[in-house]
């Protein structure tokens, strides 16, 4: 499974602890606050989330992007010490059925005039 973690630490202590945890877990730093791992299991990620929860406080923000998880794209966010999860299907959305059929416009036709009485 591919996992990307984006950190917005509220303090230097929590940043240092989370970065050490990610480094020890095999994550590679790809941008200033973004860490990635393409060979991590669900069980390992669950343990990492528990550790991150332990190291963070109210002012820390952490976003975790996972793909594929049961064929879906999952975004998990820790904000204000609460975990939120958004699960997105990986299949293409189905087009909505149109309610009214549109007739093609005849460009060469004369405009209609309406006589008012």
Please render the helix and strand layout as text.
Layout: E1 2-8, H1 12-24, E2 28-31, E3 34-37, H2 42-55, E4 61-69, E5 72-79, E6 82-89
Antiparallel strand pairs: 1-3, 1-4, 2-3, 4-5, 5-6
Helix pairs in contact: 1-2
- Look at the helices and sheets and give the structural class: alpha+beta
Radius of gyration: 25 Å
Count of strand segments = 6
Spatial ordering of strands, largest sheet: 2-3-1-4-5-6
Helix content: 10-25%
Low-confidence blocks of residues: none
Q: What best-fitting shape do the alpha-carbon axes yield?
A: elongated
Give the SSE string: EHEEHEEE
Cα end-to-end separation: 74 Å
- How many helical stretches? 2
Strand content: 25-35%
Mean pLDDT: 86
Sheet having the most strands: 6 strands, antiparallel
Describe this structure in words.
Helix content is 23%, strand content 34%. The chain contains 2 helices and 6 strands, in the order E-H-E-E-H-E-E-E. Strands 2-3-1-4-5-6 form a 6-stranded antiparallel beta sheet, covered by helices on one side. Strand 4 and strand 5 (72-79) form a beta hairpin. Helix 1 runs antiparallel to helix 2. The chain is elongated and about 85 Å long.
How do you describe this structure in short?
The chain has 117 residues and is of the alpha+beta class. 23% of the residues lie in helices and 34% in strands. A hairpin with a 2-residue loop joins strand 5 (72-79) and strand 6.
